[in-house]
Amino acid sequence: MFSRRIDRLAGSLIREILQLTQRPEVISFAAGLPAPDVMPHTDLSDVPANMRQYGPTEGEMELRAAVAQQLGALGRECTPEQVLITSGSQQGVDLVAKLFIDEGTPVALESPTYLAAIQAFRLFGAEFIDLPLSSDGIAPTALEAAIAQRRPAFVYLIPNFQNPSGYCYSAQKRQEIAGVLEASGVPLVEDEPYRELMYDPVDRTPISSLLKNTPWIYLGSFSKTVCPGMRIGYLACSPELFPLFVRLKQATDLHSNRPAQWWIARLVSSPAHNSNLLHLRDYYRIRRDAMDAALQRHFRDLADWETPHGGLFFWVRLKHACDTRLLLPQALKRNVAFMPGEPFYANGIETSGAIRLNFSHATPERIETGIAILADVVRARMA
Prior knowledge:
Elements: H1 13-20, E1 27-28, H2 61-73, E2 83-86, H3 89-100, E3 106-111, H4 115-123, E4 127-134, E5 137-138, H5 140-150, E6 155-157, H6 171-184, E7 188-191, E8 216-221, E9 233-237, H7 242-250, H8 258-268, H9 272-298, E10 303-304, E11 313-318, H10 328-333, E12 336-337, E13 339-340, E14 354-358, H11 364-382
Parallel strand pairs: 1-12, 3-4, 3-6, 6-7, 7-8
Antiparallel strand pairs: 2-9, 4-5, 8-9, 10-11, 11-14, 13-14
Helix pairs in contact: 2-8, 3-4, 3-7, 5-6, 9-11
């Protein structure tokens, strides 16, 4: 009765955990939720009347132009006519899957990587090629070997403050990866939802900006810096790919939220936007440092981790590896939530020995309390 794809349809553990963490007593390190206190005030009272009508699939030109200008400042030159406004950057991931993937299509991605990308690609039948991830990025030699052996339809990377690891690619890795892609012609899908959440100086050069002849897709979002409830993201790409993405979006939702596009276009083009970003970074830096300090106090003998230079997550690797999914029920009994590491591996893994901890949503005081409880849960399991 249903399509063959339905057999590959999997739920999201993150979304399921989120349902469990709505109770105020739960300290949640699970989902990557922005803090409500730093979301800008939303005033839609002046939305023009024509924004109530259907709009262009490509998005509002004012917002497309603002995105193109921002990308140009990063070195990734593109025109507004190469920018498609999407219903969150997750829709961009879905459109990529629809464009490139048939059953059995090889796709190369980081290991571990973004859970919802795994879901979207798997739904359309992708076969995954793992690219092991280190703190400075994937190995260009591993990418080169994967392309030579199986030639993926595209390579999916999150170079800045990667989800789930928080890692940021080094400048050298970015250059070398771009060289491999240029030599092979394999398209790059570069997912950048966290690039503005930078707390320490690091190189954030888009890998796509280093490509001259290879097809590229760049995904971005306003969910982490403005308001996730508005569900506004964007997809920019090589000119030859753009008409295909527009037709795919036409078949999906016609167009994205017009009043939200209008409001965000004015926000990001205003002088206050940079001040908002600086405030956001200062705010989250305090919470990152609070979690790092709590981990030093309670997890020093239990795990290893790198302090992320940006983003929303710590990737904590237990010294005594276990299936971290078994820790979750015990933590939830004590009103603490986190994300086990195992689901972030596209080809599956029995024991990741890692947990992902979000630091943006809880206060420093609740971070301290929650990390102490979580350490007790880990020690009890290891006993």
